[in-house]
Each structure stands twice: as structure tokens, then as C-alpha cells.
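Repro:
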Amino acid sequence: MSALVRPVFAAGRQAVVVVIVAATVFVVGCARPEADRSASDSPAVTHANPADATPDKIEEAKAAVRDRNLAADPESGDEIVQHPAGKPAVPYAATSTEAESIPATRRDATAAMAPGHQVASGQLAYLRPPAEPTDRENYGHVEDNPVRLTVESPVSTFSIDVDTASYSNVRRMLNSGRLPPEDAVRVEELINYFSYDYPAPNDGDAPFSIDTEIAPAPWNPDALLLQVGIKGYEPARAARPAANLVFLVDVSGSMQSPDKLPLLKNAFRLLTNTLNEDDSVAMVVYAGASGLVLEATPGNRKAEILGALDRLEAGGSTNGASGIRLAYLVAREHFIEGGINRVLLATDGDFNVGTVSHEALVDLIETNRDQGIALTTLGFGQGNYNDHLLEQLADNGNGNCAYIDTLNEARKVLVEELASTLQTIASDVKVQIEFNPARVAEYRLIGYENRILRREDFNNDRIDAGEIGAGHTVTALYELKLVGSDARLVDPLRYGRDAVSAKDTAAGAELAFLRLRYKAPGGGASKLIERPLVAEDVRRAADTSDDFRFAAAVAAFGQILRGGDYLGQFDLDDTADLARGGRGADFHGYRGEFLSLVGLAQTLRPADQVASR
């Protein structure tokens, strides 16, 4: 270790020597004698002549100290001067005492960085390469749903999903200038980010309506696209039940950046402004430990709630499990029979102390879910965002998962869609479609990969499934290949059984049979809805609705981001054209924003990928 000694003198008679000690540098492959190591590891102090300490020289010495970054010669271990990026190199004039102690290697490298100096070959080797930022974001691995042969697997069963986190997270990445990783793209969440104009049920006795549309698939005219749309009943805003809410806020050190705790506080301010005297809000925070910072407070006492939000500061490690336990205790203490009882967890999901296993957290949340307390997760930030954990917690907590990348997204989730976010109108909603092998040769469910259920789960009321909030729309898409179609991907078996004979039966005109099960909130036994889907329902492409075309465009976009294995030559240009044709009224501008994201994705895609399609 070497030391540079700079004398800086005060205005008085006594001299003060400031010693600047360079960082210890280990020389690869070179072992220093023990005696040399002990001697050189002690900083040397050199006294200069006080007569040299003029004001100009003092200021020159200070400037030299500020402008200098010390790097290391990888061969000798000596320091060299490395200037910060973007700052012009300033030649450093050392005192006579220093000049003798500075190794020739460092003097040469310093001179090489002076303006106008011609850099000799090999001198740039002394510059330290820039470090790359660490990305610890976590996404669950998802394999695309495969093509199914109807004669082998005629029944498809899945749980509905109303999460939207994937869309806003993908938007965040595209707006930052990069394509999302494939596992960050859940196609059904992109589709369900948007509302669709499905017919609404007339009253609360029927919690939702079902709408279907069938037409040629935009990416393959020899295939059909089946759209199943569900629209939840939306009561008047004044009829919303009283809400018992617990804000569970992550205030750990990882939440310090502007897109985390500051944005989180503004998001909860928007929600607070929508509450009334019948509602109550408590606030639990967690970092290394957890604590109750606001007792249950009526929603009309907004100054107290907003004041508690304003006082939140980030710091410490993240004991998320401890905070969740406390939040559920508070929610149970103020439970409202027949009302909304919900914990809203706002975090980046980076649980690093306490109970960190997914299984233990899921068990904790399922126990409280069965007692009538739901969990909504709101994700924030980047770099260490744990999408996989937050999605799992919400799915098992009878809640929904959203990602808040902007204040406008917070307004959408917590103000504009407040009823659908908080108020559940149907629980454990399952969809099952049985395809007619006489008509449909193959089918493929687009998205919902982590929502697939076994066939026997459909009639088992003990199996948990998704929830629909007030006014929610839910959309599912299937790609179908009819019997005899040249678009089939799987060849028929030479020795397989003949399914064509089923055309002569009473159900011969049916393409499929749709079944849907759901429970009333807090109800025990499920209810069943059934509907046949007949060939006569197939429309021409020109006769499809705006919602059909736009949902298909979003589905294509998500599949392209995931690799586009089933889209053939259909590309982002085609996706944009299709979305423009289905944009419709677009009152809030969300569909227009989608078109901008498609353009961004096209710009960011590598040229070889664009040319290959």
C-alpha cells in the first residue's frame, strides 16, 4: 500500500499535514516479503516547507485532491490517476517531494490522460472497466400451454385470473428501453388489464354475465379464435359495503428510491381520499421488525391517515412475514361482518429476514383467507422486484396482484377500479370447456399457464380458484383447429379411433360446451352455469367486435414477447394494425398507450429477429 502526502497549511504558524491513504491493492501472483508488508502498510507522513503554503498552492492542492480517483496498475499494484466519466483530465503538477515518490508507471498513465496527449498502445489497460448494475428481480418460470389433441384431451379446465401486474411491469421495462424477460410476460394479465364492453348482468342475483365470440384467428385464417368474456355486476358506488382495510407498508432500506416508498405513499393518499366514515384504515409497517403506526381510524379522519403516511421513512432489513402476521391480527380485531376485510401489502417483495419461504407464507395467508380476510399485493420498484412471490401471495389470499409503476396506475387500481379491487362478488370461479372431437381437432389455451386445474378439480368445491371483483371483466382466448383443417400442427394417429361419427349425434353441431362454477362471497356450495358453443356462432373476420380484435392484438403482443412460437409470420406491425382496428372509444387512453408500447417493442427488438419474421 502506498500513500500520497499533500501538505495543506492553515493561516496560523503551525502546519497541518493531511495524509491521503490509497486503498490496499493486492498484486496477483506476487508475494511481498513480510518485512516489506509491515513497513509499507504504515502511512508515511512527510513535512513540507511552510514557506511553500501560499493561498494559490493551497487551492491547487485541494482541487487536485477533489479531481483525483485512484485506480490500480494490475501489474505493479501502484495507484494511477483515473478521472470520473465526463470530467476532462487535468494534468497534476506534483511537488518536488511527491514527484520523487510517485512510481514511473503512474506518472506515465497520468500524463497519458492529459488533453491532447497521444495514448500509446497498452496504456488503456490501466483503466478500470465500469461495473454493471445488479438485477435481482424474480419471476416464476412459465411454459406456454401446448397444443392439445381433442381426441386425447377433450376437456380444458382453469381458474380465472384478474391480476394485471404483468402488463404494467412490462410497460415499465419497455419505457426504460429494454425488452422484458419472457417469464415476466403473462399473456392473460396483459389481456385482462383492459376493460371490455361485455353485456352486464341486470342485478346482483346474477353476479356476472358470460359472452362468447368466435371468428378466424388474425394470425392464422385457417384457425378459429374463441373468446370467452365475463362481466361482473357493478353496484352503485354508494352501495359499496363498509371496508376494514389494513395498509401493510414495507419501509425497509430497499424501499428508499423514488419509485418505491414515495410513490407508495402517494398511491395510498389517493385511496384514502375515496374512503368515508363507514370505512376504517389501520397501518402496519415492517422492516427489521414490524409495528402498528396507525390504529384503526375512520375513513373520514383523513388528516390522521395522511399524517401517518407522511411520517413513513425507509431503512433496515425486510421481515415481511412478521408484518403480514401483525396486519392479519389487526384486521381480525376490527373484522366487519358482511363488509370488506382486506390487507393491502405494498412492497417490492424483497423479504430477506424472518420467514422467507413461499410455502410458509402461503400457509399463513390461506389460514386468514378462510377466515374472510383477503390479501391484495401492490408491487413497486425495480432491481429487486419479487414478482413471483407477490403473485403467489395474492393468488392464495383471494386477492389480486397489481404493479404500480406510475401515479396514474395507482389511480387506475385504487380509485377508478376501487370496487373491483376491494369488493368480491364471486369467488372460486372456474372455467371448463369440453371440445367436440367431431368438430375440433386441436385447441390451445392462450395464457393462464399457472392457473391450470385438473379436470376433477372443477366439481371439487374445496379447490381454491380465482375471484371476480365488482365490475371486473375477465377474458380467455382459445385457438381452435377444426377437423380437416390444413392448419393442424399434430398429425392424426394412423391407428387412432374415429371421432367423426359424432357428427351424427344431437350434439354434432356443437364446437364445444362451456361450464362455469362459482361461489357467492362466503358461500359454501358452488353454482353451475352451462352453455353450448355452436358452429353457427362463427363470424367472419370483418364482422368481429372491437373488443374481439383488440383482445386478439394484446394476446398476439404477449405471445411475441414470449417468443411467438405459434404466430407464424404475424409480427408487431400486424399487431399494431389489429389493435388500431379494435381501439374503439378508449375513454381513458389505455388502448392508445398500448399502441405506443407496441411501437417501443418494435424499436427495441434486435434487427435479426425482426428480419426473421
